[in-house]
Fold:
Amino acid sequence: MSFVLHLPVLMVAVPIAVAVLISVLLTFKRNIAFVLSVLTMIFCLISSLFLMVKVITEGSFVYYVSDWPPPWGIEIFIDRLSVYMLLLIAIVGLISIIYSELYIKKVLDHQKIPFYYMLVLFLIGSIVGFVISGDIFNMFIFFEILSLSSYSLVAISGDREALRAGFRYLVMGIVSSLFILLGLGFIYSVTGTLNFTQIALRVKELSDLTVIQTGALLLIVAFIIEAAIFPLHVWLPKAHGKAPAPVSALLSGLVIGIGVFGMIKVVYYILPGVYPVSFVVFFRGLISVGIILGAIFALFENDLKILLAQSSISQIGFAAIGVFFFSYSGLMGSMLQLLNHAFAKSALFLGAGAVIYKTGFRNLDEMKGIGKRMPITMGFFAIGLASIASIPMTCGFVSKYYLCLAAIKQGLWGSVGAILLGGFLSLLYCLRIISCIFFEKPDSKVEVKEAPLKMLLPLGVLAFLTIFFGVFPRAAFVLIEPGVKEILGFLR
Amino acid sequence: MFFQFVLLATIILLPLFGAGLVYWVSSKSAMLRNYLAASLTIVTLILTSILYCFSKGEAIVVGYPFLSFAEIRFSINPMSALLAFLTAFIWTAATLYSFTYLKSSSNQGRFYAFLLLAFSANLGVFLAGNFLTLFIFFEILGISAYPLIVHNEDKKAFKAGAKYLVMVFLGDIALLMGILLYCKVTGNIDFATGIKGTSEYIKFIIFALMGIGFGVKAGVIPFHIWLPDAHPVAPTPASALLSGVMIKVGVYGIIRSLFSIFGPEQSSIVVGSIVIWVGIITMLVAVFMALLQENAKKMLAYHSISQMGYIVLGVGCAAYLGVEGALALGGSMYHIVNHALFKSCLFLTVGAVYYRTGELNMYKLGGLVKKMPIVAFCTLVASLGISGVPLFNGYASKTLIHQALAHLGHGGWVGLVNVLFIVTCGGTIASFIKLFTLVFLGRAPKKYEKVKDASSSMLVGIMALAIMVFALGIFPGRFWTFFILPLLKHLGYTGTALSSIRTVNILTLHDIQSLVISLAVGIFIFTVGTRYGLFHLRFPRWFGVNYWFEQFALGVYFLLHEESHLIEMHTSRATREIKEMIAKKGRSTEALIEGESYVLRSLIFISKRHVKKIYLRVETYIVARANYIIKSLWSGFLAKTYRSLSASETKKEFNLYIEDLNFSIFLILFLLVLCFVSIKLIG
Structure:
C-alpha cells in the first residue's frame, strides 16, 4: 500500500495536468474536455477513499516531495481532517462537473466550454493543494491559483454584471493574498522557517509574541475575506449569484469552506495558542454579527441565487464561529457545518440552476408554485433548504446542535444568542422560499417539466448525502472525531 | 430486545415512508391513494396496540448511536405506549373521515403525505426516550403541520400559517436552549427523575425555557395566539388532529420536563403555584373567549385551550404537592386521553355539518337534529363528555383534578382557585348547551331542507370516537387501574404514593355538590347570555395578547420598510371608520366583525363614547410619536455611520443596506438585553 503515500501529490498534479492538456487539445478535440474532467474527478474520489482508509488505520503522515526533507523540499501533511476535506472536494467537484455538461452548453458560448472545464480543474487542483500543503508558502501559492481560477469562473459568461462581480471579487482576493504574504513575512522574520511543525517548535522558544500575533492576525484576516465573514463579505453575493450555477455550487460549497479550513490551519496547526483573549472575542463578535446579518440579507432578497449567496454568509459564519471556541464540541460543529454547507448549499445552487435551465426564471416572484410543476427537482431543493434551516434529521441540525452546545458549555451567551437567532432567521427565509415555491398559486401558464436526468441525478445524490449524514452523523465521526481530538492536542 | 426494536422502527418508519409512497401514488390514482393511506394508518394502529402489550413491565429502551454523547433513543413504557395508541386511534378515525370530506379538494396528495408524516413525528415524540429525540420529532411535527394548516391556500390560511410557524419556531428556540442547558447541567440528555446537586434557580430557568417551548405548542396563555387562527382554518380532519392529538405533545413535554427536572416526589411550591395559576388563567380566559365565538370551529379551538388549562392545572398541583400529587397527575393524564377523544369527535361532527350545509356560523344553523340524527347524537355524547356529566368520560378526569385541588389546603388563594374552577366548568357547560341548541334544535332554515346525514365513511370515524367517549365514562375505574396507575409508577412515584390512590371514589357527596353547582352556573350563564345578548359582546382588541403580537410584528415590518406608511394608514382608517360608525348606527354590533374596528365593539361601547374617543386619540398620538422618534433615530445617525463603512455605491443599494442595518441593530439590542438578563439570572 505504499502507493497511497503518493496519492496526495497526484491529486494536485493530475487535475492541473489535465487542465493544461485540455488547453492544448483545444484546437482539434473540443468534445473531450467533459469526459477528461469527469475521469480526473473520479480519480480524485478514488484516491481520497484510499487515503481515508490509510489515515483511519494508520493515522496522519508526512510526505516529502521527491524525498527532499523540509528546509529545502516541499512537505505534505495529511491528517484525518484534511482527508475529510479532500473527500468533500472530490464529491462536490465530481457532482458539479457532471451537472455542468448540459447547463454549460445552454449558458455559455460554444468556444468557451473547454475553458470552463480547464478552469474548474485548476480550481479543484489548487484547493487540494491548499488543503494538503505542509508549509505556509505553498498554501499561499495554491491560494493564488485558487483565487485566479475563481475570478475567471465568475466572469466566464462575459456579461456586464458577471464581469463587474468578478472584478469586485478580484480586488478583494488580491487584498486577501497580499495579507497572507505579509503575514508569512512577519512569521518568517521571527522564526526563520515556513514549515508548520518547525514554526510551532520555534514559537515555543520565543519570549515576545507580538510579531507572531501580528502575523497570525494578518493570516486570519486574509481567510476572513476568503470565507466572506462580516464586514468583508461585500464581494460574495454578486460573485456567487452571477456565476453559472455549477460554479456557484463549487464556490459556495467548497471555496469559502476552504477559507474556514485555512483559519483552522492557522489557529490550530501553525500557530496554536498564541492568541490573546481580546482577539478571540473580537473575531467571535464579528462572526456572530455576520451570522445574523447574512440571514437578514437573505430574508429580503428576491433573486433566488443571490438569496442563496447571502445565506452562505450566514452559514459559513456558523462554521467559522466554532473555530474560535477552542473546544471539542465547537470544532466538531464546525467540521460538520462544513460538510452540511458543502452538500446542502451545492444542492441548492444546482436546484436553482435547474430552474434557470428549464424556465429562465431567476426571481422568486416568477417561481410561484413551480414546485407543483417540477416536484422531484424542487423536492431535492427543499431537502437542501431543510438542512440550511437546521431541521432535525438533516446534517444542518447536528452541526448547529454541537455549536450551540459548545457555546453554552463555555457560557458564551452572546454566541449562543447569535447561533439561535441565526438559526431562527434561516428557518424564516427557507420557509419563505418553500411557501413561495410549493404553496402559492402559479401566475404564468407556461408548461414546465422536470429537469433532465443528468441534472436530477447529481441533485439527488447531494440531497441523499444531506439526509444520510443527518440520520447517521456517526458515519462522518470516523474521520472527524479523532481528527479534532488530535488538533486540540496541538494547543497544549 | 431485537423484536421490540424492529416493532418500534416499523411503527415510526411505516408512516414516514408511507408518506412518500402516498404522494407518489396520488398522481396515478386517487382510489389507490385512499386505500393506501387508510391501510397504513390501520396497520400502525394494530402495531401500536401490540406495542402496548410490551409496555407493562420495566421500560424497554432501544436506540442507535447518533451524536458523540447521545443516541436516538426510544422507550417503550406505559405512558408512551398509551399515548401512541391514542394517537394511532384518532389518526385512523380522522383519516377515514377525510376521504369523503376532502373529495373535491385540490392538493389531496400533499395533504395525505403530510398527514402521514405528522403521524410518524407524533408517534416519535411520544415514544422518544430522551430529550434529543423528543426535540427532533417535536420540530418535525411542528413543520409537517404547516401544509395541513395552509391546505386551502387562501389569504386567511397563509396568515394563520405564518403566525403558527413564527410562534412554533420561537418556542423551538426556547426549547432547544432549555435542553442544552439541561445537557450542560446533567451531562447527558436522558429523562431523569430529578436533577440533583444544582441550585433551584437553574432548575427553574431550565423548566421555564422548556415550558415556553412546549407551552407554545400546547396553546397555554399567553402563547396561545396562533391556535384560534390555525385550528379552525385547517380542513376538519386536520383540525381534529391538531386539537385532539398534536396539542397533547406540548402537554406531554411539559410533564416530561417537569418530572425530569424536579422529580415526582420533591414538591416545589414556587413552580407549582406558577403552573397552577397559568393553568387557571388559561382555563378561564379561553372559556370566556369561547362563549363569545360565532364560528363553531373557532369556539372548539378556544375550548381546546381551555381544556389544556385543566391539564396544566393538574400538572401544577402535582408539582406543588410532591408525593401526594400522584392523584393530580393521574387526573391530568386521564384528561389528556379524554380530551383527545371528545374534542376530535366534536371537530368531526361540526365538520360533518359544515360539509352538508356549508355553514360554520352557529347562529345561522338550526334544527338539524331531524336531518342528521346520528351526527346530532354523537355531538350530544361528546358535549356531555366535555361538560363533565357522569357516565361520560370528562366527568372522571375533571373530578380527579378537582379532588386534587382539595389537597392544596383550604381558604385563601386555594378557595379562589376552587371558585374559578367551578366557574370554568359552568362556562364549558353553557358553551356546549349553546352549540347544541343553536345547531341542532329549533327550526331549520329553508335552505337546509334537503340536508342528509353524513356519509358512511365519515360516520365510521365519528362513531368510533363517540363510543370511546361513552366507554371510558362507564368504566373509569378499570381505566384507572389498567392504564393510569402503571403510568404513574413509570413516572417515578413509589409505593406509598401509589397505594393511597389505588382506588379513588369519584362520586363523593362533595363531587356531586360541585357538579350540581357547575351545572347551575352553566345554565345561568346560558340563559343570561342569550337573554341579554352577552354572547355578542366583543372585547376591545388591545385587551388580548394577539393585538400586541400583531402590533409588534407590524412595528418590525415598519422598521424594515421606510417608505411604507402602514401604521399611519392603519390608525387613520380606524378612526375614520369609527367616526362613521358612531354617526350612522350608534350602538350597532353586527356591522363589523372582522378588521380594525374591533376596538369599537367593546364593553366601552355600552358605557360612554368619550372614553373611546380619548383612548383612540391617545393611542394614535403615542403610536405616531413613537414611530416618528424611532424612524428619525434609525435613518439619521446610524445609517450615516454605516454608509461610511459600507462598500455600496448606488442609491438603491444604499437604501437596501439601511433596511438591513435598521433591523440588525434592533435585533442586536434585543439580543444583548436577552443575554444580559440570562447572565444575571444564572450568575
Notes: Chain A touches chain B through 42 residues (CB under 8 Å). The beta strands of chain A are 61-64, 75-78. Residues 278-492 of chain A form one domain. Chain A has a mean pLDDT of 87.
